[in-house]
Amino acid sequence: MHRLLLTGLLLLTLTAGSSSLNAGPVRDFQYALQIDSLAEISFAEGDMRGCISLWLEAAEIADRYAATEQDSLIYSGFLQSLGVCYRRISMMDSTLYYYNRAWDIIQDKTSPAAVSEKTRLLTSMAILLTFMGRDEESMQYADRAMQMAEHDSDMEMVMYAATNAGGIYARNRQFDKGTEALRTAMAKAGESGLPDKQLSALTMIVTLHKLSGQRDSVDYYMARAEKFAEQLPPESVAVLGFRETQAQILRDMGRYAESNAIFRKLLSAAGENSSVREDTGWLNIARNYADMGQWSNAADSYEKAYFAVDSFYNADITAQVSEWSAKYGAAEKELEISRLEQESLRNRAALQLWIIIAVVLVAVLAGVVLTVVFRRRHQKKVEELRLAQKYIDGLEKERARVARDLHDGVCNDLLGIGMQLSAMGPDSPEREEVLSMLEGLRSEVRTISHDMMPPQFNLSDIEEVMEMYTERFRSQTSAGIEFNASLEGSRTWQQVPERIAYEVYRIFQEQMGNIIRHSGATRIEAALKLSDTVLSLTISNDGRAFDPTPSREGIGLTVMSERAKAIGAVISGSASGEMQVFRLDVPLPSSGQ
Fold first, then answer.
1. pTM surpassing 0.90?
2. Which CATH architecture has domain 246-313?
């Protein structure tokens, strides 16, 4: 309805304009633009004969009254549109005639509007060559069109070039290039909001996925394309192009009768508005009949395809295409020679200045490089000394902890044993008690030695190592101990970095020892949780509260604090009912690090 309304308004405008054609060149050129708008509507509705008549009239007026470069470029656009229409009705000689006339106008122009017209003409030539089966040349023109589109500010023209280039690349099985071009086309089509542009891009995407064997993607994009096709006139260029692809898909699915129905409908428009070459259409119909076992119909269709191909590939049209390609190639070479000469002059003029600048820059750069090198060496030495000192400090702290454990435990026990031995006789009944004390001492020394050994994380993960430690710890204390480990994300225990696992394990050891030595707890609950971003350790006990922050006297707490800092962890303490809660939170590096 909207299109009919617009058509009526344009006809009224044209009627009003025709009554004053003698009002001067500007008025006549405006009239040509009004005719162009009406021709665009006819083209969108698939009326090729009607839009040819309109564009011929517009081109005649533009040829007579074009006064500026912009007028000439508009005239070139009319000629290109005529070429496209003649291709749609399979009149290739007329197509090449109008493409040649358009190229003669725009070849020497470099304005943004001229770039758009060149992008359009190169794309149209690529389509024509594909239509004629000259795929290698078609690829070359598609490449040139995409290169030209990089400098084109007209979104619709960039979309036109990218859509058709993507289809041509896909046809020649260059799927990566085709995907890249079609992504550009689809993005621009989405920005435009125009259903015919979106349908054209989707049709090419369907072709790409069909050729690459991605059946699920074919079905998905066919369904999307069908929704856009329903919004457009059945005879529009975009819909006819989609129906041709749909017919090919149905043939591949073995739905030969449905495929033939579409091909016949497309061929019925031959000479009026054809999206499929006549020989190709009849050849597909013949193959469908053959696959259905209808040999007589297949033979008739093969014969029609033979006569169609004979008329399509006549020598005159082939020669004209070759002549056009040669002319375009020669023009490109002349432009390249001119560009190189100008570039050579600019380079020669700037060479001396660059030499002076280069000498100064080299001298400055050499000074900067030497300064940076010496500074980095100095910083490296300072860092090595700092790390060495930190390592030594860590060793000293660890030795101090071991010394205290041995002093407070083993030495005191040995003193008690010595005092008892000196007080008892050879046949004293307290001998068994002394032996028991010796066995306890041996067990304690063995535990201290075992705890000092670094865990083997190359053989076990942190959850297994802490579970084994808890089992040993249970046998050494009367307190009830529970240990639970849980995963709350996609990470596994094996993915915890060894450096972090080692420090968390040592902090766990130290805190468990602190609880037994200082709190008098009868129940201890430890929980280790791993998420995608944090490793957390929580230890709760029902003993007396004590300050988890380090002090000068608290060697073990100081070591825990240093270990936490080394891995960027945070230690916190709190009370929950009768339970004292110790918590350690360690941020984890991302999986890619």
1. no
2. Alpha Horseshoe (1.25)
